[in-house]
Each structure stands twice: as C-alpha cells, then as structure tokens.
Amino acid sequence: MKVRGVARRAAFGMAVVLLVVYLVFPFGWALVSSFKTNAELFSTPTRFWPEHPTLEHYRQVLANDDFLRAALNSVLVASSVTLVSLAIGALAAFALGRYRFRGRSIVLYVILSMTLFPQIAVLGALFQLVNALGLYNRLPALTLTYLVFTLPFTIWVLTGFLEAVPVEIEEAAYMDGASPLQLFAKIMLPLAAPGMVTTGLLSFIAAWNELLFALSFMQTPDKRTVTHAILSFSATTSSAFEVPWGQMMAASVLVTTPLVLLALVFQRRIIAGLTAGAVKG
C-alpha cells in the first residue's frame, strides 16, 4: 500500500509538472527569444537558450514612438472599459441580485448568452453601429464595442456576489432608514469588493489583449492599441521579406508582464469571483 501511495503521488507530481510546462512554455519561449540575436533566432538547429543575450530588441521597441503611443491608447481604452463595466454592471447586478421580479431569470440567461457569441459573429453589426455613430478610427469605438463582452460577464459575476449577501443585512439597513441607493452604495458595494476586483481585472485584461475589433475599427497608426502595434511591426520596422520576431517577442513580454503580475497578486480574488459567478443565479 505504501509503494502504491508513493507511485500515485509521483504520477500526480509528474502530471502537474507537465501541465505547468505546457502552460508556461509559450510565454517562456517568447521571453527567451526576446534576448536572442537575429542570427540565433533563425539558426538551425534551433537554440533553446541564447548564447549571446542582448537587450537590443527591447531598446528598439522602447524607442518606437508608435508602440509607446499604442501602449497609451491601450491603457486609456482598457481603463475606460473597466470603469464603465463596473459602474453599469454593479447597478444591474444589484437589481438582479437583490430584487425578485417577473422575467428575472430570463434576463440573467440572456445576459449569459451574450458571452457565448464569438467576436466574428457580431463584428458586422458593430461595424454598422460604429459607422452610424461616427466613431470609426476613434478610441471610443473600442470602448463601446468591448463593453459588449465585458459588461455581461461583469453583471453575471457581481449578481452572484450580491445574491450571497444575507437578507438580514439588507433588512437591518432598511430598518435604520437607508434608501435603496444608500443600501447599494454603503452596504452592498463594500461587501462586493472582491467581486469588483475580479471582474475589473478580467475586463481590463480582455480589453488589453483584444485584437479583432482593434484591427477592424482603427485605421491610422496613432489610434492603434498594443496588440495591433505588435502585429504591425513587420510593416514598419523591417523589409517586406523579414519578420522582426525579436522585437515582436520583446514587445509581447513588455505588454504581458504587468498583466501576469496583476493576476498573481489578485489570484485568490479571481478564483473567488469565478466560483461565486458559477454557482449563483
């Protein structure tokens, strides 16, 4: 029995190691490639570790004004999407989570279904909407279209959080003379803080990494986001026959590292938020 237990733990440990390597390998490969010289990037056989590490790709990326402007655009768009998602989503979740009315379940499932559509399925309709509002090649177009996906997720997760608040707390607030708005602002919002952090962070990451809408609705270089700017490196910094993989890998590491750090810092709140959203509603 003891030998069987040791074998099970060894097999489990091996499975965990393989899973971690599988998940981390793409980011690790991008990180290692960002320090390789151009000769090492295209050498045969493939070199898994740089023999002559260099920061030249990072220097070129940080000296690229278009990339820096794209990073600023991404910060503006992702921040605005996060704030609007939380503001509207919290109010909607308060109504859906604390009040019972006819059609409530239908509304919740319609909101959930909005997260199931692939981006390409709604691209045509959103393109017509952006054109009709005169927002083509303007950053508010990205804020408006990203909300189509971040807002339903925010409402769904926060509804689960607010539903879990004991009704006795709500009744005590009303007995003390609180209005529904005061109950929302002074009682529910502080209690839903973990869910707010979770949904806010995931909305920011989704808006930061989005590419399809950025490609479709932005035309000029000064309106690009970081994902669009990285994709455009081949057309702006090299010949038509060479793809600057070193710069692309360095830029990918620069834009991904802050998100990884945020996810690690708030990992417990993310898990709590996803769990609450999955079992409530």
Automatic annotation (TrEMBL):
It holds the Pfam family BPD_transp_1. Residues 71-266 form the ABC transmembrane type-1 domain. Keywords: Cell membrane, Membrane, Transmembrane, Transmembrane helix, Transport. It is found in: Cell membrane. CDD domains: TM_PBP2. The chain crosses the membrane at residues 12-32, 70-94, 106-127, 139-162, 183-208, 245-266. Signal peptide: none annotated. It comes from the Bacteria. It is a multi-pass membrane protein. Belongs to the binding-protein-dependent transport system permease family. This is Carbohydrate ABC transporter permease. It comes from Polyangium mundeleinium.
